[in-house]
Design a protein that fits this description.
Blueprint: E1 2-8, E2 11-17, H1 24-32, E3 42-47, E4 54-60, E5 65-66, H2 70-82, E6 90-95, E7 98-107, E8 110-120, E9 122-123, E10 127-131, E11 134-142, E12 146-151, H3 160-168, E13 178-186, E14 189-196, E15 200-202, H4 206-218, E16 228-232, E17 235-241, E18 246-252, E19 254-260
Parallel strand pairs: 2-3, 4-6, 12-13, 14-16
Antiparallel strand pairs: 1-2, 1-19, 3-4, 4-5, 6-7, 7-8, 8-18, 9-11, 10-11, 11-12, 13-14, 14-15, 16-17, 17-18
């Protein structure tokens, strides 16, 4: 099985064009292992779609299937264009959270940036989540997948690796949740760190950045209809949230290397 390792702001996956194998959970666990496998946050399979240009399925490093990945879908756009599966620069991609629209930005025939219409974010009222040692207030946000946004004074000091897993497995989020720790660092600028369900601490999370920006505008911390710069451990994303909470994400997509899985 041939694969291409790609990354968006350090959020890295192994991309395969073709049908998903029956042993995908075990395969994703094995190949994602950073010591005994290729090393990644998971695997993404790209295939034909009867309702869109392509279909993507996302499997986390623990073998579980994710509904959507913002950094991952940008790399899907780069993959299908640069490998000659399409000549389109505007694509519709089928995901478990619906069809997403991509706009590919080319430089010298290569895809360097991708803008994604992420659909409408659903921002809920703040809730209090019990922890092992106290409690924490978060803003639940859905961007096709679940997020818990926690605004902090200093994101660099946030206890991502200890609070993150407690949030993921909280009874208040029966299906698990991604936990984002966000700090307002300037006008329409946010510093964010993330714990992703099924993968742990990652360098970036595209849907998480969309969730954080949506929560910020809902609280008046950032402005609607203007680009919001979200600084993640792996780099920068640009997020725009309309007053109807329609979200657009723009960011890079890069190929790391090609390889073959020996099964």
């Amino acid at each position: 099985m041939h694969f291409t390792k790609m990354q968006g702001l350090g959020n890295d996956y192994l991309y395969v064009y073709g049908d998903t194998p029956p042993d995908i959970a075990a395969l994703s666990q094995r190949m994602s292992n950073r010591h005994f496998g290729a090393g990644s946050d998971g695997m993404i399979f790209i295939s034909h779609s009867p309702i869109a240009d392509f279909k993507m399925r996302i499997f986390n490093a623990d073998g579980s299937e994710a509904k959507m990945c913002g950094n991952g879908i940008r790399c899907v756009g780069k993959y299908v264009y640069e490998k000659g599966y399409t000549e389109k620069t505007n694509l519709r991609i089928e995901t478990l959270s619906g069809i997403k629209t991509l706009n590919l930005r080319l430089i010298a025939g290569k895809v360097k940036q991708v803008s994604v219409d992420m659909g409408r974010a659903e921002v809920s009222k703040d809730i209090t989540v019990p922890l092992e040692n106290g409690e924490i207030i978060c803003t639940p946000v859905s961007v096709g997948n679940p997020h818990a946004v926690i605004f902090v004074k200093n994101a660099e000091d946030a206890a991502v690796s200890t609070i993150g897993p407690q949030m993921e497995h909280s009874e208040l989020f029966p299906g698990g949740v991604n936990a984002e720790f966000a700090q307002i660092i300037g006008e329409n600028a946010i510093r964010m760190r993330v714990w992703e369900r099924g993968s742990g601490v990652t360098l970036a999370c595209g849907t998480g950045a969309c969730a954080v920006a949506s929560a910020a505008v809902s609280k008046g911390l950032c402005e609607f209809d203007k680009p919001i710069t979200v600084k993640l451990d792996g780099g920068m994303l640009e997020i725009t949230v309309s007053r109807e909470y329609k979200v657009t994400m723009t960011g890079p997509a890069e190929t790391v290397y090609e390889g073959d899985i020996v099964c």
